[in-house]
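Q: Here's a chain of 113 amino acids. Please give me its 3D structure as tokens.
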Amino acid sequence: MRTLNDYFLIFYVPDISTTSSTGYVVAPDAGKLIKAYVVTDATTTGDAIVTFSVDGGTAITQTLTIAAGAAGVVSSCAPADNNAVLAGSAIKAISDGGSTNAALGCVVLVIRR
């Protein structure tokens, strides 16, 4: 259930099938990253793993695995550590490039104030 204290950030990882393909977004308010989603725009084979970090700090332990599949498949994870954000924090998503076929990854983050 969403509360009025949740807000959402949307950004892109240019190609989840390329090692170190990275996307960034800025958090406008402080809070905790409680959920991350990625949806791809193309069919992929092999699994790509996306890792998140805040302000260049220690990576969030919970990674997001994008399983091989058709465009439009949604993957998610619920970060539980290293997930505090401040107003103005830079949040990074980076792919390990474990899949094949170029695919844009649309990332949606849920931040709870």
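Q: Can you summarize the key feature?
A: The domain at 6-112 is CATH 2.60.120.1340 (Jelly Rolls).
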